[in-house]
Amino acid sequence: MTWLLEPPFVNSSIPFHSHPHNLYIRNNSFFKPISAAPGAVEPLSPEPEPEPESLALSLDGPRERRRVVRLAWEKLVRWSRSLRSKAKTDVIERTNKIVVLGGGSFGTAMAAHVATRKSQLEVNMLVRDPQVCRSINEEHYNCKYFPQHKLPENVIATTDAKAALLGADFCFHAVPVQFSSSFLEEIANHVDPGLPFISLSKGLELNTLRTMSQIIPKALKNPRQPYVALSGPSFALELMNELPTAMVVASKDKKMANSVQQLMACRNLRINTSSDVTGVEIAGALKNVLAIAAGIVEGLNLGNNSMAALVSQGCSEIRWLATKMGAKSTTLTGLSGTGDIMLTCFVSLSRNRTVGVRLGSGEKLDDILSSMNQVAEGVTTAGAVIALAQKYKVKMPVLTAVARIIDNELTPTKAVFELMNLPQVEEV
After folding, report:
1. Where in the numbering of this chain does the Glycerol-3-phosphate dehydrogenase NAD-dependent C-terminal domain appear (predicted)?
2. Do 111 and 125 belong to one domain?
């Protein structure tokens, strides 16, 4: 197994020097003749020794360096293929049924994705809307969210929680955070105590400030319910179109995280694992609030400079709070942190960014929300920001401003004015 420890990007047979010209000078000095003492016989010049290979490399310059990079890349590809060929597939082989709670866009996309992992796999979607249920079962389309995308034949829908959950090996939870507690309490009697829950929901429960890792075991009355958080930069539409995507699964149980990784990873979906559930959940929740702020800047036409400044400040605020809550700082610069923030703040497919753009353009929040057929979690999560900031004694001016705009305490224009007039500080 020592090959696993060998860095795949190092070509050990070819020494590489970052400053080849210095090497050339040192080797020249090696061959410089030593002056004889007065009266001594001058020694015969020795046979010239062959130039070291590293010296030859230095003389070839950029061409040789490109060759070294190419060889390193080829070695990395070979290493990756070898590792993938040895990857375990037993999770897929022994999984027969998966249930997806919720018939929204992301739940549908995830159902479609896992259904392609094995044709014999039964994927049950538990939905509330009878029309959506009929559409999925009879026409293989989700008429409400993806009317143009045909679902795999092994995706079926039901409104019966008992039937959906019976015999399931994994459960994907795609119900919005604010409705999760009541929904889970309704179906708790049908949930197996050992059924792993994979949460796709991002946000904080408004009244309790709880994350999904706290909501699920509480609602199911089972503190040991297996739990995995799935997060990262991923729009449902692009998952449905099988575009390359990378996400992260976080669990305190490493074996469980690895199992979910094996279940989901494929040619178009890369899955990393993490043990930092807090970091993944807090970053996933607060990035929605920051996306509203970014949208407000866009709606007010304040330009790129202010957009970059605001998002940078917002990232710092998320880091300050998350690390106070026990998150790892490295998580916040990974897929579930920086990756998800970039996607949600800067891309027009983002629901939360869209809310911000419309707020900045002068629309009323009630009108915006009534016109949307999907939940923008950042609107309700923003209300929890102020409470969290007070609880952990963290100053969060940007995210707090969003909460005050949503509560009609500030207009978007006045919020920008107040942020720009905060005391000048040293960057930390």
Report:
1. 276-416
2. yes
